[in-house]
């Protein structure tokens, strides 16, 4: 443990860099609450998406890095801003007309369009918790509605009322003229309609702890700011939560840099230090557009898990969090294969290299052994070449390569095979189109076919790869990459693929010869 702590204090992996800032935060004085509090936020106005999971996964990585270099206990809260009003109808859920009728109600009062839970927020919160629980995250779920209505925030809400002018002085310069005229950090929950109203605060009574506002029908109403009668605007709300709970670390997307800045100022105005944190880059969909939970573009957590294990998703989240990344189906195979490559490397690494290895962070310092003799990308290409309908088709090839492997002895490989078959049918087969080879490619394929047919039966993948290289060079492909592109596009119906010699070894020389014959015949 001493060795790990010493190395962690200078490790360059980004979770350790983040954790060291927390260590420094507590150098002079440990947290009065007795633990370091990490928080992630979620707005349940739309279905949870991978960005939500990524924030929890990355925060957990920083948390575990901190624990490796500090004896201070830690806690992680996954906070749902479910008292916010529904401002627009998501486009990726059923019963949109019903949701339109519930606009401006707190999300915990909006009817569940799926008809499964007490409210839309309850449905989305349940989806989020089920996923986080399934992955084994150590966290405490927190509901904004529960915290407001139970009085958990009352003391800090009264302080917000006392320091109303300071909050306004921070917020007003960030707003346009029209918004300045009507802005208030307090959003009353109308006793008449239940709506979360965006209206000016006309009067404040600090001694009574109340505000006065005007209902849409013109009636002036006085409400206490405590007990769930009001909800704070987003940036003051975030700051109030940090102050009330003593949040020490929270990361946020690059789109919230201004929100972090203003909320930090408000937190200080409330007499509390803002948390440490950093801004990660956002994910883009296949068109390069920002992923939005209301649009439902990009990948869902369920979609990723239909094809690959959750650990591969966590690995993807670890990689370069400050670099914008495309998050679409075609990133899954690469993430799975790289994850297993890192698992294979881990046992031979020293402590410094291990804690720099992504799988240390994915598995909170205790990564398992890998049992994947065949890569996920190779399984996909086998499924594509064979038109696999089930995993048994793939196991027919796998057994040639790894005779001792069975679904029972290699459950991860069996799971990967099942994911590859699903991926092939969902994401490859509908778009698969093998193009016809041109005259040069046809001659080269015929040459490759003959060389393979006449090759010794015991050649391994490297020897078979050499044959493929020799054919490409003999037919003057320059660059040689064009030869492999031709192979993939004419034989497999895709623009790129595996190391072809390894594919031939696994798929089988006779089967590859038959595949070339089929292509040349077409």
Description:
- There is one protein chain.
- The chain has 24 helices and 12 strands.
- The chain is mostly helical.
- Among the domains are: 2-169 and 232-280, Rossmann fold; 376-431; 439-521, Arc Repressor Mutant, subunit A, CATH 1.10.10.350.
- The strands form 5 sheets. Strands 1-2-3 form a 3-stranded parallel sheet. A 3-stranded antiparallel sheet has the order 5-6-7, with no helix packed on it. A two-stranded antiparallel sheet has the order 4-8.
- Helix 3 (50-67) crosses helix 13 and helix 20 (439-453) runs antiparallel to helix 24 (509-521).
- The radius of gyration is 28 Å and the shape is elongated.
- The model has no long low-confidence stretch (mean pLDDT 93).
Summarize the structure.
Among the domains are: 2-169 and 232-280, HUPs (Rossmann fold), CATH 3.40.50; 376-431; 439-521, Arc Repressor Mutant, subunit A (Orthogonal Bundle).
Going by CATH, what is the homologous superfamily of the domain at 2-169 and 232-280? HUPs
Number of helices: 24
Q: What's the shape?
A: elongated
Distance between the termini: 64 Å
Strand line-up across the major sheet: 1-2-3
Gyration radius from CA atoms, angstroms: 28 Å
CATH topology of the domain at 2-169 and 232-280, what is it called?
Rossmann fold
For the sheet with most strands, the description reads: 3 strands, parallel
> Count of DSSP E strands?
12
**CATH class division of the domain at 2-169 and 232-280:** Alpha Beta
């Amino acid at each position: 443990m001493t060795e790990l702590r010493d190395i962690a204090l200078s490790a360059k992996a980004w979770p350790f860099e983040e954790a060291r800032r927390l260590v420094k935060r507590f150098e002079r004085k440990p947290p009065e609450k007795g633990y370091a509090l990490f928080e992630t936020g979620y707005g349940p106005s739309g279905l949870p998406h991978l960005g939500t999971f990524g924030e929890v996964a990355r925060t957990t990585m920083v948390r575990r890095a901190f624990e490796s270099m500090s004896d201070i206990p830690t806690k992680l809260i996954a906070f749902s801003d479910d008292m916010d009003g529904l401002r627009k109808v998501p486009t990726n859920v059923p019963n949109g007309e019903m949701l339109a009728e519930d606009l401006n109600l707190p999300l915990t009062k909006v009817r569940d369009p799926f008809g499964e839970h007490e409210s839309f927020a309850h449905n989305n919160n349940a989806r989020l918790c089920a996923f986080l629980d399934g992955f084994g995250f150590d966290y405490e779920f927190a509901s904004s509605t529960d915290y407001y209505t139970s009085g958990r925030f009352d003391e800090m809400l009264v302080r917000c009322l006392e320091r109303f002018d300071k909050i306004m002085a921070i917020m007003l310069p960030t707003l346009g003229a029209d918004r300045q005229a009507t802005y208030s950090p307090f959003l009353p929950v109308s006793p008449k309609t239940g709506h979360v109203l965006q209206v000016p605060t006309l009067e404040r009574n600090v001694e009574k702890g109340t505000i006065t506002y005007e209902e849409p029908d013109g009636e002036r109403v006085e409400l206490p700011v405590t007990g769930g009668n009001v909800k704070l605007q987003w940036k003051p709300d975030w700051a109030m939560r940090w102050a009330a709970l003593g949040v020490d670390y929270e990361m946020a997307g690059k789109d919230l840099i201004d929100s972090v800045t203003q909320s930090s100022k408000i937190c200080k105005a409330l007499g509390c230090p803002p948390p440490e944190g950093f801004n990660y880059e956002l994910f883009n969909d296949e068109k390069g557009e920002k992923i939005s939970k209301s649009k439902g573009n990009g990948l869902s957590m369920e979609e990723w898990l239909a094809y690959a294990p959750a650990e591969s998703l966590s690995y993807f989240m670890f990689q370069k969090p400050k670099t914008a990344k495309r998050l679409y189906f075609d990133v899954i195979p690469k993430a799975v294969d790289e994850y297993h490559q890192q698992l294979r490397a881990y046992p031979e690494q020293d402590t410094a290299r291990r804690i720099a290895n992504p799988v240390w962070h994915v598995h909170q310092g205790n990564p398992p052994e890998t049992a994947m003799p065949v890569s996920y990308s190779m399984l996909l290409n086998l499924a594509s070449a064979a038109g696999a309908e089930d995993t048994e088709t793939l196991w027919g090839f796998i057994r040639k390569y790894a005779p001792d492997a069975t679904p029972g002895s290699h459950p991860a490989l069996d799971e990967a095979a099942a994911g590859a078959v699903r991926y092939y049918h969902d994401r490859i087969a509908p778009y698969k189109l093998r193009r016809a080879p041109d005259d040069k490619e046809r001659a080269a394929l015929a040459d490759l076919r003959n060389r393979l047919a006449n090759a010794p039966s015991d050649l391994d993948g490297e020897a078979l790869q050499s044959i493929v290289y020799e054919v490409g060079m003999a037919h003057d492909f320059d660059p040689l990459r064009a030869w492999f592109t031709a192979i993939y596009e004419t034989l497999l119906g895709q623009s790129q693929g595996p190391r072809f010699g390894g594919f031939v070894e696994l798929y089988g020389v006779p089967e590859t010869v038959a595949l070339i014959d089929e292509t040349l015949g077409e």
